[in-house]
Every structure is written in C-alpha cells, then in structure tokens.
Amino acid sequence: MSARALTTALLLVGLVAAASAWPKAPAGAVVATARLAAVRNLTTSRGHGRVEFVINGPEPVNGTVSIALNGVMANITMVHIHQRNASLNNPVRLDLVPRTPSAAPVLLDPPYSYNGGLDLTTAFDGARLARWGLSVEEFLFLLKRDKLYVNVHTLSYPGGEIQGMLKCKQPCRFG
Ligand SMILES: *[C@@H]1O[C@H](CO)[C@@H](O)[C@H](O)[C@H]1NC(C)=O
Ligand SMILES: *[C@@H]1O[C@H](CO)[C@@H](O)[C@H](O)[C@H]1NC(C)=O
Ligand SMILES: *[C@@H]1O[C@H](CO)[C@@H](O)[C@H](O)[C@H]1NC(C)=O
Ligand SMILES: *[C@@H]1O[C@H](CO)[C@@H](O)[C@H](O)[C@H]1NC(C)=O
C-alpha cells in the first residue's frame, strides 16, 4: 500500500471512529457531546470527562445528560450548561448538578471529590429551560451553533475548573 493510500485508509478509520462516537439515541432525537478539560490558560486540573446529551422531542422534550468524569478532582460545587456570550456574561442556561428549585445557582453541600471516576448522569427536562430564560427553540438554536458549553465548578475554581463545548450531531433538530 502506498503512503498516500495508507493515509487515506487511516483517515477513513478516523472518520468512522468519530461518527460512531455519537451516543445511541431513539430515531429523531437531538444528540450532542462535549469533551471536558481544564480551562485553557485559566485553570490546572487533573480532571477531564465526557458528556453525552440525548434530547427526545418535540413532545415531550426530555432526555438524558450523561456526565462521566475521570482523573482526579476536588470539591465539585456545581455543573451547569452555560451560553458562550461574553457580553451577556456567559449565563447559566441549565442547572445539571445540583438541581435547584429556582433559577439561582446553588452549591452542592457537601461538594463532591473523586479519584478515578465519577458518574453525574442526570435526566433532562426541557420544561426547566424556561426558568433559565430560554425556550426549547432558542436552546436548540444555540446548541446547533456551538454556543453552549458544560462547566464544572469547584471550590478552587468557582468560575469553572473543566469545561467543554457541546457539539451537536447535524442536523441538530428533531426528526
Ligand atoms: C494560552 O497560552 C498559550 C501558551 O502560553 C498562548 O500561546 C495563548 O495565546 C494563550 N491563549 C489565551 C487565550 O490566552
Ligand atoms: C420522556 O417522556 C416520555 C413520555 O412521557 C417517556 O416515555 C420517556 O421515558 C421519557 N424519557 C426520558 C429519558 O425521560
Ligand atoms: C475540599 O475543601 C475543603 C474545604 O476547603 C478542604 O478542607 C478539603 O481538603 C478539600 N477536599 C479535597 C479532596 O481537596
Ligand atoms: C450575545 O447575545 C446578544 C443578545 O442576545 C446577541 O445580540 C449577540 O449576538 C450575542 N453574541 C454572540 C457572540 O453570540
């Protein structure tokens, strides 16, 4: 096999691997994933993780946010989905952990620490989005445009220790 053919073959393997990385989901669901890592140039962290987000719809809008953390992290206080928009101050658009009774961030008490792995998988209820100021349509609009990210807050880094942009599988709308 020539070097070029080998490169092409490896690229194809890579593409297949990337495609199969989408989580299993019912037909017509919206699917997104995020890779969580230390916030570049702002934090150091021995933690990392992966988020798999499956949203069923259009009626009812519900699903699952699978949050698998690895490495080591101390004193996790909150996990949120934020909108990336500096002029709006990157607002929280959904509470994941803990679930709060109103649209105000609440700290885990006591905070979570782990060494190895921690699963923070949680149910998604689209009706909660309105509390944080977005309709389902607005949320999906931002998701499709890479404007939503998952943020893991800790005592050491109250603004977020590890983060990752949610990438939505196209066409990123209910089938
Ligand atoms: C982050 O740090 C790297 C290396 O020090 C630097 O090249 C880069 O410009 C920094 N990025 C930001 C957004 O500050
Ligand atoms: C979403 O809601 C439907 C209908 O109420 C229910 O059957 C389904 O189990 C729910 N899915 C999740 C992931 O909560
Ligand atoms: C969590 O924070 C508390 C209070 O600051 C501290 O005493 C404790 O050592 C921290 N836990 C870890 C695992 O670092
Ligand atoms: C930030 O939000 C404002 C108000 O919704 C909007 O006008 C602006 O285009 C947004 N900026 C970015 C970079 O998305």
Please give a structural write-up:
This protein is mainly β and 175 residues long. The protein has a single domain (25-168), classed as Immunoglobulin-like (Sandwich), CATH 2.60.40. The chain has two helices and nine strands; from the N terminus they run H-E-E-E-E-E-E-H-E-E-E. Strands 1-2-3-7-8 form a five-stranded antiparallel barrel. The N and C termini lie far apart (41 Å). The mean pLDDT is 91. It binds 2-acetamido-2-deoxy-beta-D-glucopyranose (4 copies). This is CHRD domain-containing protein. It comes from Gonium pectorale (Green alga). Residues 1-21 form the signal peptide. Keywords: Signal.
Reconstruct the topology from this structure:
Blueprint: H1 3-19, E1 30-38, E2 46-56, E3 62-83, E4 92-97, E5 112-119, E6 122-125, H2 136-144, E7 148-154, E8 162-165, E9 167-168
Antiparallel strand pairs: 1-2, 1-8, 1-9, 2-3, 3-4, 3-5, 3-6, 3-7, 7-8
The structure holds 2-acetamido-2-deoxy-beta-D-glucopyranose (4 copies).
Signal peptide: 1-21
Organism: Gonium pectorale (Green alga)
Domain CHRD: 30-168
